[in-house]
Design a protein that fits this description.
sigma factor; transcription regulation; transcription; RNA_pol_sigma_r3/r4-like; 181 residues; Arc Repressor Mutant, subunit A
């Protein structure tokens, strides 16, 4: 979906459709909902303020998710630097992310993106299980559903996610096998 950064209404709709997903991506890294929301809001603000200068040649949603991921990583590095500076009196340099960690991060972004393809009730149930760590019984009680309905919806969610992530996982497998050669 190509969204014009110049059109206010289109950008507002883009914001509403991608805010939650962006927060999930940031939360994967920073582990604090408040910090994740700040990072996402800063990213959207940056996109809006720099809209005339940005030349996005690919999907805006992909650009957004990568920007959120990078800002989250930068936040963590700044926090670590501050902690190390105060703990030891000097700044310690950071090693680059390993390829395996990068692949894991990319998979997390892909999972977050794939969750958006779930039907609304299925998505709600999946997020309660995945994000809030609720059991099927707890989800059933929370949403006033039967436990079997929750099981069925989770089955649907896993089937859709497997389909959505199949090509991505295959690409990772192919990439790491090439690296071994």
């Amino acid at each position: 979906m190509n969204v014009s950064l110049e059109n206010v209404k289109a950008f507002e709709l883009f914001f509403k459709r991608n805010y939650h997903l962006s927060c999930l991506v940031a939360l994967r890294y920073v582990k604090s909902p408040e910090v994740a929301e700040d990072i996402v809001q800063e990213t959207f603000l940056y996109l809006w303020q720099k809209r005339a200068e940005l030349k996005i040649t690919r999907n805006l949603k992909s650009y957004l998710l990568n920007a959120v991921k990078n800002r989250s990583i930068n936040y963590l590095q700044r926090e670590r630097q501050f902690d190390e500076l105060t703990d030891s009196g000097f700044l310690v340099s950071f090693d680059e992310e390993s390829e395996a960690q990068h692949a894991e991060d990319e998979l997390a972004v892909q999972i977050a993106s794939s969750i958006e393809f779930l039907p609304s009730q299925c998505k709600k149930i999946f997020l309660l299980a995945y994000q809030d760590n609720l059991t099927y019984s707890e989800i059933a009680t929370t949403l006033s559903l039967s436990k079997n309905t929750v099981k069925t919806q989770m089955g649907i969610a896993y089937k859709i996610l497997r389909t959505q992530l199949k090509s991505f996982v295959f690409s990772l497998f192919y990439f790491f096998n090439l690296k071994k050669c």
